[in-house]
Every structure is written in structure tokens, then in C-alpha cells.
């Protein structure tokens, strides 16, 4: 499954350059390992036209005792 997500320019650039290999997101899209994230750069209330795709490798959730708020996930991606 593919998920289209908005991403701010400063984070988009780091993902594009493969320096940022995770996303912190609300857990409302039923993410699964192997799904594709289509990250769409979003700046000044509009899309810039830049996009990149990443694959979900691992999903961290349900660890409130370590500070991850309920209803959120950290998505490891490549």
C-alpha cells in the first residue's frame, strides 16, 4: 500500500539525502512493514512538486513507557 504524506522542506531534504531514515507520525493509516511512503514536500500551504518514495522497514509503537505518545508511531524507512 502507498501512503501520501506531507513533509516540510527541512525534513524532506534530509530524507532525500538519506540522513533522516525515520518518520514520527500519527497511527491512523494502518501502516504495515513493506508499505511505501510517498513524501510530498509541502511549504507555505502548498505542495512544491518535489517528492520521494521510501519503504517502511520497521514500526515502533505501543511503548509509552519510553516516551512515545499513545496513537503515534515511528516508521523506520529505506
TrEMBL record:
Database matches in InterPro entries: DUF3850, PUA-like_sf
**Entry's Gene3D superfamilies?**
Hypothetical protein
Give residue ranges for domain DUF3850.
Answer: 3-76
A Pfam family the protein falls into? DUF3850
Name under which the protein is recorded: RNA-binding protein
Q: Could you tell me which species this protein originates from?
A: Arcticibacterium luteifluviistationis
Amino acid at each position: 500500500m502507498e501512503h501520501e504524506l506531507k513533509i516540510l522542506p527541512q525534513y524532506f531534504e534530509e530524507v532525500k539525502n538519506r540522513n533522516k531514515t525515520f518518520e514520527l507520525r500519527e497511527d491512523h493509516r494502518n501502516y504495515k512493514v513493506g508499505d511505501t511512503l510517498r513524501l510530498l514536500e509541502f511549504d507555505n500551504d502548498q505542495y512544491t512538486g518535489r517528492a520521494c518514495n521510501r519503504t517502511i522497514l520497521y514500526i515502533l509503537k505501543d511503548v509509552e513507557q519510553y516516551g512515545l505518545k499513545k496513537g503515534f508511531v515511528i516508521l523506520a524507512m529505506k
